[in-house]
Specification:
Elements lengths: L1 H11 L11 H7 L9 H15 L3 H10 L2 H5 L11 H11 L3 H9 L2 H11 L3 H15 L5 H9 L4 H9 L1 H8 L3 E3 L2 E3 L1 H24 L20 E2 L2 E2 H6 L8 H17 L5 H17 L13 H6 L5 H11 L3 H7 L5 H10 L4 H13 L3 H9 L2 H9 L9 H16 L5 H8 L3 H4 L52 H9 L5
Antiparallel strand pairs: 1-2, 3-4
Helix pairs in contact: 1-3, 2-3, 3-6, 6-9, 8-9, 8-13, 9-11, 9-12, 11-12, 15-16, 16-18, 18-21, 21-24, 23-24
Protein name: Condensin complex subunit 1 C-terminal domain-containing protein
InterPro entries: ARM-like, ARM-type_fold, GRV2/DNAJC13
GO biological process, one term: endosome organization
Length: 501
């Protein structure tokens, strides 16, 4: 009767609930009472209604947070006496979680595992959506949100939390569906294992919390069912992404940053599996091909100088990344602020099989006309080295003519620089071989298609030219050729027409 009267008073009088301050330990204790025999369920239900009413007042919630008694409330989530009132229990919990300190304590006292249990195993879609909403709310807290995220990732792939944030109903549907795409591998077997593991963890912790409401939750190891032989970076399965690079990623910038970190760390790590590194590098190139604008955000991440330093460690992967980044003018601007040309030259000297990629990278860099890049080239004697390549057969290159076209493009771009162009031109004119290339229309033979590098035109007969026209002018006939009267066909035609021509 006293609880019913209290409920009536609170409902009938505005802000009167603040008079409950100082009595919350007693009220929360009634939620788990077991000393009233057959009236236990009634008392718990009435106590729940009182807590629900006071949770709408910010002063009351602040006081409840100060009392650190939320553990007593979380026990209610698995109380069979209040199972039919679970929507009300969750609604009240939402009100309590309006204070950051309460979110912190709720996470410490195991709120995440209780909510995950209901999300994964409840038969009521409304309850599951309420739990998803509460988990998203806890994740949004600036202080405790990251810890909530870590706890959830022990049991569920990260994509589910993002789905909860976007749409609770979609999150529930996603959980019950089967998926295999770059951001999620999820099937009936995995779902059953996760649901069972979450239920067992919640039941076990509930037993401990009933004995001691102040017991703290400890994150377990990640579920073995969530681990696989797949290479996963930032929640993206690289094998599946490489096979489907057009997939719309949820967080492409985060994936880019994490993938760059992974590649840099992998190159630095001794004994790294080259297949893993190649897969990650391929994924990065495909990502930047699919979303070129992402490359503009790379310089601020600080990876560009690291890749130049790693050219001597893993030249293929590092150069492949730099080759892709050279398509971005913003990246080239950042590259120009590093001592990059000597590293590229050294890479070409020691790894002749990478000459084609390095030359195209240089061509792209010089096209942007940064003085520092031309200066570095002059200082490290890059120009004589490139001219020597023009005069060589480039036997290790798949398409020597295309490589030479890239070299010509790079040298011409350097010679057109306003600051150092005259010095470059003077230096080039000292090499007789350059005279055979400087007037070449090389841009016609550089293509980004699948037949890249193939020559168009007649075979060369003069060294150094990518194409060559005929040596003499050819007379163009403007009238039909004369009839050959000795042709048997002509004689046969003449006899059939009576001998007249």
């Amino acid at each position: 009767m006293a609880l019913q009267a209290l409920i009536s008073v609170i409902k009938s009088n505005t802000n009167v609930e603040i008079q409950c301050i100082g009595q919350f330990e007693m009220l929360f204790g009634l939620l788990s009472t077991s000393e009233c025999g057959q009236d236990n369920r009634t008392i718990k239900t009435l106590a729940l209604e009182v807590v629900c009413l006071v949770s709408r007042n910010k002063e009351c919630v602040t006081e409840i947070a100060a009392c650190e008694i939320v553990g007593r409330y979380l026990i209610v989530l698995k109380d069979p006496d209040l199972r039919e009132h679970q929507p009300r229990v969750l609604e009240t919990l939402s009100g309590l979680l309006n204070v950051p300190k309460m979110i912190k304590e709720a996470h410490t006292k195991g709120a995440v595992i209780y909510l995950l249990d209901l999300f994964c195993n409840s038969n009521n879609p409304t309850i599951r959506e309420q739990c998803a909403e509460l988990l998203a709310k806890m994740n949004a807290d600036k202080l405790s949100g990251p810890k909530v995220r870590i706890t959830m990732c022990k049991y569920l792939p990260l994509v589910f939390l993002d789905a909860m944030i976007d749409s609770t109903s979609v999150a529930v549907q996603m959980y019950e569906s089967t998926h295999e795409h770059p951001e999620l591998i999820w099937n009936d077997e995995i779902r059953a294992c996760v649901s069972d593991a979450v239920r067992d963890a919640a039941d076990s912790f509930h037993v401990q919390q009933k004995r001691n409401p102040k017991v703290a939750w400890r994150d377990p190891e990640i579920l073995p069912e969530l681990l696989s032989n797949e290479l996963v970076v930032s929640g993206v399965y690289l094998r599946l992404y490489v096979s489907n690079p057009g997939w719309t990623l949820r967080k492409p910038k985060q994936f880019l940053a994490d993938l760059l970190d992974f590649i840099v760390d992998s190159i630095s790590r001794s004994g790294m599996d080259t297949d893993v590194l190649d897969l990650a590098t391929t994924a990065l190139v495909l990502l930047l091909n699919a979303q070129p604008n992402l490359a503009d955000s790379v310089p601020v991440l600080g990876h560009i100088p690291k890749f130049f330093r790693q050219l001597s460690v893993q030249p293929k992967s590092a150069l492949t990344v730099l080759h892709q980044l050279s398509l971005s003018e913003i990246c080239v601007s950042a590259i120009s602020q590093t001592e990059c040309i000597p590293s590229l030259k050294s890479c070409m000297e020691h790894h002749r099989d990478l000459t084609a990629t390095a030359c195209e990278t240089l061509s792209r860099l010089f096209k942007c006309q940064h003085d520092s890049l031309i200066r570095q080239s002059l200082e490290c004697q890059l120009i004589p080295y490139l001219v020597a390549l023009l005069d060589s057969r480039l036997v290790l290159a798949n398409n020597p003519a295309m490589v030479k076209a890239q070299i010509v493009a790079a040298l011409k771009a350097m010679s057109s620089n306003l600051t150092y162009g005259d010095r470059v031109t003077h230096l080039l004119n000292q090499y007789p071989i350059w005279a055979e290339y400087r007037d070449q229309k090389h841009d016609l033979f550089i293509t980004d298609t699948d037949v890249r590098g193939y020559l168009m035109g007649a075979p060369n007969t003069t060294a150094g030219y990518l194409t060559q026209g005929p040596a003499k002018n050819v007379e163009v006939l403007t009238s039909p050729p004369p009839i050959d009267r000795d042709d048997p066909l002509f004689a046969r035609s003449n006899s059939s027409s009576g001998g007249s021509v």
